[in-house]
Structure formats: structure tokens, C-alpha cells
């Protein structure tokens, strides 16, 4: 290919690949306002969400991975949009509806988290109980809305029956079930809990279940069944619940005296009361013992079994629940703490304060509720507050805060990276858990990677964050085909214009991608594992070169000639044409000296020019030269110290894509005041170097005793050192379309210069977490990307502003998880049932009046 042809191709690429064509502008990959719905509409949404996606035979897996199609999807009604998946993530985030072809996998081949399903199903049933009771009293049992909710309740109750029968030991509560045979996601590999998984028996042999139930599992299932039985169940449902509770109580309470055994009857799964970790021993009340007594009280109320009543009374006396001295101390935890148990305890106390007839015990249970209110009254947690109001009266419970809490609850429950600790608009405080928000955060701003909302702290600042996207390239032949890589070593491909991404198996630690301009099906990936080559558009890869490589370049005179630059030197693949392109490589840089070295190649011109940077000197040579030639080294003329010729350990060396004479280098400097990469630019092929921040040139000249700044005032020297410390650029990229525009990676944002380093500005507009960690300019698009803890962001206006993309990396590959809305449903429907939320409040478009 001639130089003229190469330039023509570049012009066509930059002019034809507009931002809209080159990458989907999916600015809905993060939630931007799904909380702005009426409380009623949120409840209707979560009813549908939990029934459609978070449903395994009625049981409720809270965390579900949303799976995009790997194949082309085409429907008669959506022949184009469905196939391209254009707007898929905005649709999910804004509406919660899965696009055509998207799915989830509740089987052993999938990743739905079933380990805590029994607990969350008990929580879901709690919310369903309040919903059924409210609808029964407000619209009647003949209304279709009631009938739909009633049928859903039947499904949930039956799922708990399955969980207590799947093992073949009635009453042994499985933590959860996955559909199908074979090992589940949690068994893949040698794990300590693998022996707790087994295949179901009898009619449930098509289910893979996780055993090893905990006291929390039993507590939340007893609670859900107990509340539903108490306020919502008709006689038929009461009979179904009675069968479940009878078996559970027999195995957990009576067979082994409050010790839950595994199905073999020999090994302990959990001790429900007394002597287990933090459950309070055997001589006084504790949170754990209160959970266990709730289970006993529920079981006796539902089954009428006198043995259960006797066991309840025995533990009441043994633990001193009527002893004024032993019940003085609160068991409800401390402020800003104990959320894992508080959800259990407030729900249990809701039941105990209604079921218990003994005045002394009622008084103590009433005290426990008040103890909880005193430590959580400022947290605006509606579920807690509604229990406080039911038990303690309307002077307790924060009605305004509870309403605010539900109003700020988002319907988008896809995991979202959060890093509130760096915000400047919040007040913070220090606690034993570290830095926290002074006041409860709106729900949409919380790191909700806990599977059940009420177990999370309203003050917690940071949660799950995305892996850092470090590299992104677009095919010059088809902008829908894109490759990316992250800093953990995983690589990805997309054939949907960057809307949907899939992990590439067997291709790791990639540092550069290169598409062949001549052969649309040929592409290369360079990294620590050498060079891998694909001849099928990236679907499969084979190794073509075994040495580590950092970057790849094409010869502009002949695009079938490739150069590879790595820590071992420069290698070349000659013009082998057609199927042979990039299959054979040879070293062209000679023997590598010892020590830290960085290489670069400029393939422009009749002969390529090679560059080498060591700790001692900078070298250059033409491709056919036998020896390297070093550039003149700086020598301090003041005579009181030596000069470090390079200034630090070489990190990288790069040629400018526009100007043949311009190079960039980064060295690692270490000092008392300044440490890290120091990036410099040379305009004369490496003979002289100046910092990329032009105003710092006098500092470098002074330190080397060269140029116009051999002497400098102390005040100016101090200002320059301060500027060097405060304006630290750790990575640099040159704009693909304009040689005067450079981008610099900084701690809090991206710096940009439009005059080749003379002046710089810094900004982070649009970055949800302004802590960029990587910077890249793709070859075939006039844009720049940064990798942040919130995912990959793009700018198409020279870093003036940024927008998010769908490349938010969670779990394996780019698949993200969604949490169900059972937490919201519990609080909302309890508020409706007890009259704490009026019809006008439920229907109010509150955000329009804020």
C-alpha cells in the first residue's frame, strides 16, 4: 500500500466513522432516575420483576445475572433493533424490561445466586402477606388484582414446601435450588462447601440443592410463614403453611433439641439457640435466642404442638427472659451497626408482640422494639419505622423519613458502582467501620450490592466497583465489531457497536489490538502472552509470537508488514501476504542489554527508525544499521553534583502518530516530594527532552543545567516544584486527528492541551466516579476513552465532557447482576396495610414538586 493510499484510508475513516456510527451512545448504562416513579408504580414494577426474573419454582433468588444473546436475534416486529441490540442497556436500566434475546439462567449451568434463596423467599413472603391483607381489605377477594397476588402467594408458599422436601428429609431447609443436574456455579472448583450440595430426591431429583441451612435461614422462613399465616392466609393456605411448619419444627426444634442437623443426622448444620458464636451463650437473652424463640412461638401458634410450647417455656426460663436484671441490657445492637440481625429482629418482634400473651414477656418484647428505635430512629429506614409505629405507637417511627426513603428507592436494581467517599457534597464521620456518611444516603446513591436491602447500612459510602477497562479498538471495516481488555487480564468482543460485550476465552493480558486494513477477518492481540492472531473476526485466536509485546504498528508503505514492540525489543513480520500475514516474526533490534529498557519504532520512511531508552542513555538506529547510536547526554555545568541523564527508570517510549521527529517517554522518578511517572517530549528525535507540561521546562533545564534556565530564583523554583506535585500526569495519549491535542491521565480527571503542552486544562465532567485509571485513543475513531471504577467512559469532544458506556465489568466478563425488589415490597405493603402510606401518597408524583 502506498503512502498516498494510506493517508486516503485514514481520511476516509475519520470522516466516515462519526461518533454515532462508531459506538452506540448508550448513556443509559447507569441509572439516572428510575426512582422518579410513584410508590404504587414501583410496587407494581417489583411485583412483576420478582415474578418474571427472580423466580425458581416460586423461590426467590435475589441476585440474577442478565445474559445478553451471543447470536444474532431477529424478530419480525424488530428485524433490525433486535439483531443489533441497539439501546439494550437503556431499555434495561430505564424500564427493567429485557430486550429480545436476553435471558437468565436459573439452572446448574447459570449463575443465579441460590445460596440464600430460602432467606430471601421468607422475606418476599413477608411483603406478600401485607400485600394480600391490604388488597383483601381494600378491594375484596374477587378483584383480579387480588386474585393475581393470591396466586403468587400460593407459588411462594409452595416453593418453601419444596425447599423443605428436596433433600428427602422433611423439615431440613435447603438454602436454595437450581434447576437441572450436574455441578452448580458454586461447585465449579475445589471449595470448602462443595459437600453441602446434592441432587434432590424423589420427585425433586431434577433440582440441585444447597444444604447447610443457618439460623438466619430458619428465622426468616419461620417469620415469613408466621406473618402470612397471621394476617393473610385463608384456611386452605393455613393448611399448606401448617404442613411446612410442622416438618420444619420437628427437624429444627424437637428432633435434636434446637440443633439443626444435616440430613445424615450426625453433623451439625447450625445451633439455633445457645453456645454458638455470638448467639449469647445459654444463660441470658441475645439476638440469636430471640430469633430461635420466634420460631418456636410461630411453630406453636400454627401447629398447636404442646412439645413446642414446652420447649419455648423452658428456654424462656433458662435464658431469663422474665428476669429484670438479665433483660436490662439491650440485645438490639448499637447505632450504625448490626443491620444483618436488625432486619431479623424487628420482623420477629412484630410477630412476638402480637402472638405473646404473657404480660412480662410482652413488656420485654416491647422494650426490645424501643431499644431498636433508640439506636435507629435517625436512619429513615421505613421497614424498621413501620414496626416501631405498630408496636410503640405513632409518636415513634419517622413517618416523613420513611416516605423519603421509599421515594428515593430506584427500580433499577442492576448493580451500579458507587464511590461516595470522594464526593464533596456530603458530610462524613468516622466510625469503627471507617469513613461513613453523616446522614442516611438516598437509596439510589447507596452501594446496594447486598442482596437484601434492609441488611445494608444507610451510611455506607462505597461498594462494588468495575474492573478497569484499559484498551478499546474498533474495526476499520465494520464499526460494530469491537475489542476491549481490562486491567485484570480479561478481553472482550462486541458485534453490536459496543452495546453488548462477551468475554474472550483463552486470550489474556492484552495490551494492544490491531485490525488488518487489508483483510477484514484478520486481527491481532498483543500482550504478556505474545501475539495472538485471529482469522475469523476474533472468535478464535492462536499464538503467532511467544515473546511479550506491548504495542503493534503497521508499515504505512505496506500494511502487510507489522512491527511489534515489547520489553525484549522490536520484532518484525515481513510481507507474507494473504493467509501468512503476521505468522512469522524475527528480532530486528539486536541483543537486548541488561537493565530496564523501553523501545519504540517509527515505521515511516524508506527505512524504519528504532529507538531505545535505558537508565543511562537514549539510542537510535535505522533498521539496516548494525549499531545503536546514543544521543548526547546532559552535563551539569555548575559542577556541584552529577546529572541523572534520563531522570529515572524507563517505563515506556512512544513515537508520535503525526510527526516523525516527535517522541514521548515516561520514566519513574522517586523523591521525597515527587514520585511516579514523569513524562517528557522530544521534538528532535530524542536529542533533547522537555516535560509535556510546558511551564515546567525551566525546572528541567535548571536540574540539568542546560537551556535558558541555568539559574532560577528560590521562589520560582518552589512554585515549579509545587506545580509538578499538583499537576501530575501519569499517562499520555495524542489525539488521532490533531497532533496538537494531547490527553493526560490524572488522579481526579483528564487533562487536555490544544497547543502541544503549552497550556493545559483539567476536567471530569460526566465521570460518575472521577478516578480515571487508564487512558486510550482508538486507532479508527476520533474519540478518547478512560477506564474508571464506574466503567468505561468516552469523550467525542476532546475530553470536554464524558459519557458512560455499557462496558461496566462485574463478575465474569461483562455480565451484570440484578437484585430483586423484595425489600421495597416488604416496607411499602406494610405501610399500606397499616395505613402509614395513604392512597394519595402512593399515587403522588412527588419528584415534580421537589
Shape, principal axes of CA atoms: elongated
Per DSSP E runs of 2 or more residues, the count of β-strands stands at 37
Q: What integer is the average pLDDT?
A: 90
Major β-sheet profile: 4 strands, antiparallel
The percent range for strand residues is 15-25%
Protein structure class = alpha+beta
Report the radius of gyration as a whole number of Å. Answer: 33 Å
Helix count, per DSSP? 19
Low-confidence stretches: 1-22, 78-83
Features:
single chain; about 850 residues; alpha+beta; 19 helices; elongated; disordered N terminus; 4-stranded antiparallel sheet
Plain-language structure description:
With 850 residues, the chain is of the alpha+beta class. Helices cover 29% and strands 20% of the residues. It is built from 19 helices and 37 strands. The strands form 11 sheets. Strands 9-10-11-12 form a 4-stranded antiparallel sheet, with no helix packed on it. The longest helix has 22 residues, at 117-138. The radius of gyration is 33 Å and the shape is elongated. Mean pLDDT is 90; it is low at 1-22 and 78-83.
List strands and helices in order, with pairings.
Elements: H1 3-16, H2 19-22, H3 39-52, E1 63-65, H4 81-84, H5 88-95, H6 117-138, H7 144-165, E2 176-179, E3 197-199, E4 207-210, H8 215-231, H9 235-254, E5 259-261, E6 268-271, H10 287-303, H11 306-319, H12 339-355, H13 359-376, H14 382-392, H15 399-407, E7 428-431, E8 434-437, E9 469-474, E10 482-486, E11 490-494, E12 502-508, E13 510-515, E14 523-527, E15 530-534, E16 542-545, E17 551-555, E18 558-566, E19 569-573, E20 586-587, E21 598-602, E22 609-613, E23 618-622, E24 629-630, E25 649-655, E26 663-669, E27 676-682, E28 690-691, H16 697-704, H17 714-726, E29 731-734, E30 742-745, E31 750-753, E32 761-763, E33 774-776, E34 784-788, E35 791-795, E36 803-804, E37 817-819, H18 822-833, H19 839-843
Antiparallel strand pairs: 1-37, 2-4, 3-4, 5-6, 7-8, 9-10, 10-11, 11-12, 13-14, 14-15, 15-16, 17-18, 18-19, 19-20, 21-22, 22-23, 23-24, 25-26, 26-27, 27-28, 29-30, 30-31, 31-32, 33-34, 34-35, 35-36
Helix pairs in contact: 3-18, 6-7, 6-8, 6-18, 7-9, 8-9, 8-10, 8-12, 9-10, 10-11, 10-12, 12-13, 12-14, 13-14, 14-15, 14-18
